[in-house]
Each structure stands twice: as structure tokens, then as C-alpha cells.
Design brief:
Length: 492
């Protein structure tokens, strides 16, 4: 990435400040793509182009996957995951993990079988051009790769970025259809971390744009069209990667991380900087409309919301927090993340902070049915290799290595499912068992790197036997690089 990068070029490169933290049949991909793909031998030692982080150079299609164990027959759907997988790298030393073309990986489960695995680049404008393909639909003026998340909404599969990219609609088999405009009602962008209200079926988003000093709250109705939009002034070009939603309120994180292209002239790979002169605030406003109430809080970086809910006169927000100061560019200069709770007293306009778990962890999730409603259980990933690559060589310690965590917020206890050394687990996705009655009656699914095969497994755990042997391990033909977020999309 050139030191002379313009703002537009920086955006086109697909900067996604999301987290800090076998041979298969090759799909129909032009030979040009393989030539463009980065090759390890010329990468010059960039850790984000090596090992589990390294981009994969091909799209893969494989049917009838090998399985150890038994896939539950009530799991019918696709487990999808998105993440940067750069094409055509010009300067390997300048590459950052959070930059690059998006690739979605997916496994289809049905009738106790793993029918297929597919990996596909998301054809945003720049990616389609690199692949020598026509551009789909009408892209946003500033085109980002859609490389952070993938969700299901009203039968559509949407690959999401934040900032100035429009959602990209994918087919069930992960081919890119083009930008989604919600029946012509929305030509704007969306958050990578939308919230689907399980009661109303509405999709909520708070997106930002590096060129504006406001964020935009958008609600897509259960009918699939924009119901309301609202611009909220922020007084600066801030980063707001995630937000929180309750049954009645929207919660915003105003943090001292601002867009500054000059930072790249001084050696940063991504143009976000910690602004010590800017206060940290949490804001909330009624979903039905009304003023934003802002409360100053101690500075930190809130990367991801676990969940949020109304509790009488309080708003409870559980989230992953990096202590201040935080650098998305050089995470090794930041302290590791932990799980924290805010209890916002609306009458007193005060915030009480409680550390729920101080062990390093990221990628918090609750069951989809609990989003914006009170939850008891939450799931996080503790990935030692991810932290080591960022310079946290001593963490997690020997008591908390690669694995997944199940938190019981009612008792304050947690359980840890440990994977072998270097078997990094992706974000955990909970899927309820058919006929489930308890919140944790179901399965926890995660893509886990298998170091013995140098490929990934889709691991299925019984959520109520979290530390027990996996129910099933589905063996993928290739590796899924350490990446970002995804979803279980039932059916199809
Ligand atoms: Fe994220």
C-alpha cells in the first residue's frame, strides 16, 4: 500500500477495523486470479501472510465431506464466515490482516451429512475487476471489499462491511449477485454488526463514513424495506465498529479513535489513530425516537457487543473491551481484551462497569434468539495464535489457550473447551436443537484450524456438554484463514 495513498484509494483497499483481535475440487476461477494471489515465498516475513493468517489462493468446492462423529440431523442450514483474503498484493510488507478482498466460506449441512464446502471471493467492484469479471450492479461511489461479516435476512445472504460499502447479496452457493438495495429503498451502507430483532424481524444498523462527522441509524422492516433512518452527529470522523440494541433502546459507543490518513505517512498500515484529546462517551436513545443521552465514561476501545437488554430502569451492555490506549494498527501496543459489563442507570445517567472475565478473549456471541433480549449464556473465542501474531507472546497463559468459552452470566461461572495447540477457533455460533426449551439447549459451531492437516474442521459441540468431546468434526479440504464473523443460516 503506497505511502502516497489518497483517501479514496485507502477506502478502496478495504480497510476493515473489525477486530483486533487436502485438495478439493477447484471452483471455476480464472487462472488470472491464481496469478494474482499472494505467494508465501515473496511475502517478506509479514506475519499476516503466514501460517493460519495467510490468504488462500483459490476458491474451493468440495462435496460430501468426511466426518468424525455424527452430525445432528436437526442441523439443516449453512455455517458461513467472512474475512479478508487479499488478491493481487502489491506490497506484502505493507499488508495488514484487516485489509483486503472478502472471502466467504460455507458448509451446507442436511440430513446428518455435510453436503458441501465452498469458498468464494465476494465480488465487490475492485475484487471483480481483479478477477477479470464484470462488476455486479451499482457499487457505492467508494467501493470497499465486503470482508467483515455475512448474515441471513429474509432469505437473502448478505456480505457486510462497515464504512462506505453497500451490502453484497450472495446466492445460497455464495456467488455474488451484487449490491443489495432492499427493494430500492436503500442506496446507503450498513454496519458489519447489524442486529436482527428476534421479536419484530427488523434489521437494525448503525453505520459510519470516514468522510462524515455523523453516524447513521437505519431500520429495515420485516418486509425488507427501509422503515426509518436517522443521522446522529458525532463531532468527528470516528470509528464505531459495533453498537448495542435492546428491546427499547439503541446504544452508541463514542470512542477516541478517529480517521487520519496522515498516520499512514508515519508508518501506519491503517489510518485510525487514538485521539487522547477526545472524550469517551456512551449514548443511548429510544428506538421509538427521542434525544440521545450521552454519558462520559473512562476511555477504552469497545470492539464487539456480546449483547444488551433492558432491565427495569437500567440498560445492561456486555461487550469486549481493550484498555486505553488502543491501536488497531499495532495491537501489540495495546493490552489484551476482556469481557466487561456496563449497567447504565437511565434515571441517574450513570454507568457502572463490572469486569466479567479478565482473560483474553474476543468474538462474543449470544444465541440469535437472545439478541436485544436478556441472555444468560454467551460464547467467546480465546485464540492464542491470534494474540501471539499481534505480539502478545505470553498470552493467553497455559490455563487459557486456544479454545472457546461458555459464560453463564447468571452464576458468573464459565466453561472452557480446549483445542490442541495451534488449533485456533473462529467465532462460535449457537444453533438451537429442534424443540429446544432451554437457552443453551443446542449446538455450538466453529471453524477450527486443524494443525495436523493444515486445514480446517467445522467442529460441533453440545452446548450443554461444552467441555465434552465434539459431537462432530467435519473435515474441510483446505484451510480457512483466521478471519472475522459469520452466521448460521437455517434451511436451504
Ligand atoms: Fe467485528
Amino acid at each position: 500500500m503506497s505511502q502516497q495513498m489518497s483517501r479514496r484509494n485507502a477506502l478502496a483497499a478495504g480497510l476493515s477495523v473489525g477486530t483486533v483481535l487436502g485438495a478439493g475440487a477447484i471452483g471455476a476461477i480464472p487462472a488470472k486470479a491464481a496469478q494474482l494471489a499472494p505467494r508465501k515465498e515473496r511475502d517478506g516475513g509479514n506475519p499476516f501472510l503466514e501460517g493460519q493468517f495467510a490468504p488462500v489462493p483459490f476458491e474451493v468446492t468440495e462435496f460430501d465431506l468426511a466426518v468424525t462423529g455424527t452430525i445432528p440431523r436437526d442441523l439443516t442450514g449453512r455455517l458461513l464466515r467472512n474475512g479478508p483474503n487479499v488478491l493481487g498484493l502489491e506490497d506484502p510488507l505493507a499488508h495488514h490482516w484487516l485489509v483486503g478482498d472478502g472471502m466467504v466460506h460455507g458448509v451446507q449441512l442436511r440430513d446428518g451429512k455435510a453436503e458441501w464446502y465452498r469458498s468464494r471471493w465476494v465480488r465487490a467492484k475492485g475484487t471483480a475487476e481483479k478477477l477479470g469479471e464484470p462488476v455486479r450492479g451499482v457499487p457505492a461511489e467508494t467501493d470497499f471489499p465486503s470482508n467483515i461479516n455475512v448474515i441471513g435476512f429474509r432469505g437473502k445472504t448478505l456480505a457486510l462491511q462497515e464504512g462506505t460499502a453497500r451490502p453484497q447479496e450472495l446466492t445460497d452457493e455464495l456467488y455474488t449477485v451484487g449490491p443489495c438495495d432492499f427493494n430500492g429503498t436503500w442506496a446507503g451502507t450498513m454496519s458489519a454488526h447489524t442486529k436482527l430483532d428476534p421479536g419484530t424481524g427488523e434489521l437494525h444498523s448503525v453505520s459510519y463514513d470516514e468522510s462524515t462527522d455523523y453516524v447513521q441509524y437505519v431500520v429495515i422492516s420485516a418486509a425488507g424495506e427501509v422503515r426509518s433512518t436517522r443521522k446522529i452527529p458525532m463531532g468527528g470522523t470516528i470509528l464505531m465498529h459495533d453498537f448495542a440494541l435492546t428491546e427499547n433502546y439503541v446504544v452508541l459507543y463514542d470512542q477516541p479513535i478517529v480517521f487520519d490518513l496522515d498516520a499512514m505517512k508515519h508508518g501506519q498500515k491503517i489510518p485510525w489513530v487514538w485521539d487522547t484529546g477526545r472524550p469517551s462517551r456512551v449514548g443511548y436513545f429510544p428506538r421509538a425516537g427521542g434525544a440521545v443521552t450521552w454519558i462520559t465514561v473512562p476511555p477504552s476501545y469497545i470492539s464487539h457487543t456480546l449483547n444488551s437488554y433492558d432491565d427495569g430502569g437500567n440498560i445492561v451492555v456486555d461487550y469486549v473491551e481493550f484498555p486505553a490506549p488502543f491501536s488497531a494498527d499495532r495491537l501489540s501496543t495495546s493490552a489484551p481484551p476482556a469481557l466487561v459489563r456496563w449497567t447504565i442507570d437511565r434515571a441517574r445517567r450513570s454507568v457502572r462497569r463490572t469486569q466479567l472475565d479478565d482473560r483474553p478473549q474476543e468474538f462474543p456471541r449470544v444465541p440469535d434468539a437472545r439478541v436485544s433480549r436478556k441472555h444468560r449464556y454467551g460464547y467467546t473465542a480465546a485464540t492464542a495464535d491470534f494474540l501471539r501474531a499481534y505480539g502478545h507472546g505470553s498470552t493467553p497463559d497455559s490455563a487459557f489457550g486456544n479454545g472457546l468459552v461458555k459464560h453463564d452470566l447468571a452464576t458468573g461461572r464459565s466453561q472452557f473447551h480446549r483445542f490442541p495447540k495451534h488449533a485456533s477457533a473462529s467465532e462460535a455460533v449457537f444453533v438451537p436443537r429442534s424443540g429446544a426449551r432451554a437457552e443453551d439447549d443446542g449446538y455450538v459451531l466453529s471453524y477450527v484450524h486443524n494443525p495436523e492437516r493444515n486445514a480446517s474442521d467445522l467442529v460441533i459441540l453440545a452446548a450443554q456438554d461444552f467441555t465434552g468431546k465434539p459431537i462432530a468434526q467435519i473435515h474441510l479440504p483446505s484451510r480457512i484463514p483466521l478471519g472475522l464473523h459469520g452466521s448460521w443460516i437455517a434451511g436451504t
